[in-house]
């Protein structure tokens, strides 16, 4: 660990850079960097499109070797990467370290999986011909990523793209470009060709987003962010029928049945709701708690919340950092006020925002028609909805336009199958509060998006299937 974590990215820092990255914990400037305009990004895409030709000709094993070197450098620099991440995102340092390991996992996993991009032979329709399929890289890809996971949202797109033989140009979120640039610097140190993977921070996100959808050399766009921006990009992608992977908003139900282990369920809520101060797309958004255990569960949750320590993510023992900025904290405070006004009952928290900080909050007496139950909260606030039976829980859980992650706690094997099958979500965690991993397919249904990241399904997002018919036999 160097004393200055920014040493990794000094070559990118500019005293007069128009992108000013601030520490949400105290408002201090972390660093200033250049902004890419659409013309510059266009030239970078052209270069990436040239670089991918030689890259795709390497064997998967040769690509894997360079990717493994990149993975190893990320892990060797994990402490500095985590500190950069905490400085620009506010995330508690322990969570940032966890994200580096988790994010690096995608690089390692896809480097290996690239070796298994198997085609097939298919029994044919004529004795004179044979059918084969081969998988080929999609080509030059682009990605747009959010600030809540400044490192992992990039590696889970770039790693499968590179493993498949594609090139990738990434526009990181305005708030967290420094971690992204550090990843680029380490990829170059590892020997990954410079033009193959580029990070393009910009102040003109919408112009660059439109360019990604209109540049003739971009074959695929992968986006993680809000459903609203996903809709804009999907409409723009119609111009060239650009392939899309969209990982959008969620409204995760977290259901606690009367046969659940309540202590385990409380720990699940702490992990799922309060991690990253509630700013993840898979955060529990609504706690659905069965009548008979409602009060006991809320009591236990309240006691456990009392043990959380809020503060600057760099400080020892802090497990709840600030939100990404003061505007977001004020928005969350408004959501809470509105919910109380609509009849919600405050159990803990609920104070005004303090700069970018917002205290962990629980509100009971919430109903599914309230605004808080319909939209992503993106803050450390847990609304509790009562339900009577399994059918009602499933009905409330599915009463949303979103379908990303769902959670439930139960020990009954019959109920576990019924509820898992009944939830209209891309991912369901049972008796667990955290579900994302490079080995599993992450993604949503309904307005939470399309496509999967992680696992062998994540690789196929960056490959085209070609059917070859061999006749004249
Ligand atoms: P979040 O709520 O996570 O900030 P957004 O969807 O607003 O979600 O942002 C996610 C990413 O999308 C960021 O990198 C942001 O800069 C980018 N973005 C926002 N608006 C647009 C747009 N019109 N076109 C392309 N990218 C955009």
Question: What would you note in describing this structure?
Answer:
This protein is an alpha/beta fold. It has a seven-stranded mixed sheet with strand order 12-13-14-11-10-15-16, sandwiched between helices. The chain is 39% helix and 19% strand. The termini are far apart. The protein is built from 14 helices and 18 strands. The protein has helices spanning 38-57, 60-76, 78-89, 93-113, 152-164, 177-189, 205-214, 227-237, 262-274, 294-305, 326-341, 390-398, 413-422, 455-460; strands spanning 19-22, 29-33, 120-122, 130-137, 140-144, 167-171, 197-199, 218-224, 243-247, 252-256, 284-290, 345-348, 361-364, 381-387, 405-409, 427-430, 449-450, 463-470. It has two domains: 10-248 and 448-468, Aldehyde Dehydrogenase, Chain A, domain 1; 252-430, Aldehyde Dehydrogenase, Chain A, domain 2, CATH 3.40.309.10. It binds adenosine-5'-diphosphate (ADP). Adenosine-5'-diphosphate binds next to helix 7 and helix 8.
Can you tag this structure with a few keywords?
Aldehyde Dehydrogenase, Chain A, domain 1; oxidoreductase; 14 helices; seven-stranded mixed beta sheet; Aldehyde_DH_Superfamily; alpha/beta; Aldehyde Dehydrogenase, Chain A, domain 2; binds adenosine-5'-diphosphate; Ald_DH_CS_GLU; single chain; 18 strands; EC 1.2.1.16; 2 domains; glutarate-semialdehyde dehydrogenase (NADP+) activity; globular; 473 residues
């Amino acid at each position: 660990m160097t004393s200055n974590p920014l040493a990794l990215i000094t070559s990118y820092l500019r005293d007069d850079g128009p992108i000013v990255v601030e520490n949400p914990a105290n408002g201090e400037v972390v660093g200033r960097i250049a902004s890419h305009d659409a013309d510059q990004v266009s030239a970078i895409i052209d270069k990436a499109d040239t670089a991918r030709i030689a890259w795709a000709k390497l064997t998967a094993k040769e690509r894997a070797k360079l990717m493994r070197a990149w993975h190893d450098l990320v892990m060797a620099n994990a402490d500095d990467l985590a500190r950069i991440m905490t400085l620009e995102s506010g995330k508690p340092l322990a969570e940032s370290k966890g994200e580096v390991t988790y994010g690096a996992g995608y690089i390692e996993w896809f480097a290996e999986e690239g070796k298994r991009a198997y085609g097939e032979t298919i029994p044919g329709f004529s004795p004179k011909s044979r059918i084969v399929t081969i998988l080929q890289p999609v080509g030059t890809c682009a990605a747009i990523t959010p600030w809540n996971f400044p490192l992992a949202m990039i590696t889970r797109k770039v790693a499968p793209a590179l493993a498949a033989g594609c090139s990738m140009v990434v526009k990181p979120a305005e708030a967290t470009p420094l971690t992204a640039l550090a990843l680029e610097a380490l990829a170059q140190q590892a020997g990954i060709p410079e033009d193959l993977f580029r990070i393009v921070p910009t102040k003109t996100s919408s112009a660059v987003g439109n360019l990604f959808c209109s540049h003739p050399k971009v074959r695929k766009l992968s986006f993680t962010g809000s459903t609203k921006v996903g809709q804009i990009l999907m409409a723009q992608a119609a111009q060239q029928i650009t392939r899309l992977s969209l990982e959008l908003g969620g409204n995760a139900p977290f259901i606690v049945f009367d046969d659940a282990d309540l202590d385990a369920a409380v720990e699940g809520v702490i992990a799922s709701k309060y991690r990253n101060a509630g700013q993840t797309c898979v955060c529990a958004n609504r706690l659905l708690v069965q009548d008979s255990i409602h009060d006991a569960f809320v009591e236990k949750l309240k006691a456990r919340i009392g043990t959380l320590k809020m503060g600057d993510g760099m400080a020892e023992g802090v497990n709840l950092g600030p939100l990404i900025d003061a505007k977001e904290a004020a928005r969350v405070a408004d959501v809470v006020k509105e919910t109380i006004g609509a009849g919600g009952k405050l159990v803990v928290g609920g104070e005004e925002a303090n700069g970018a900080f917002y205290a962990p909050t629980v509100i009971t007496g919430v109903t599914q028609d309230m605004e808080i139950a319909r939209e992503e909260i993106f803050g450390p606030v847990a609304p509790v909805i009562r339900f009577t039976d399994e059918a009602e829980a499933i009905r409330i859980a599915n009463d949303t336009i979103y379908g990303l992650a769902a959670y439930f706690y139960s020990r009954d094997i019959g109920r576990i199958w019924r509820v898992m099958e009944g939830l209209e979500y891309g991912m369901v965690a049972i008796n667990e509060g955290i579900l994302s991993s490079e080995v599993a397919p992450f993604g949503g249904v309904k307005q939470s998006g399309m496509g999967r990241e992680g696992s062998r399904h994540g690789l196929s997002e960056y490959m085209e299937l070609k059917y070859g018919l061999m006749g004249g036999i």
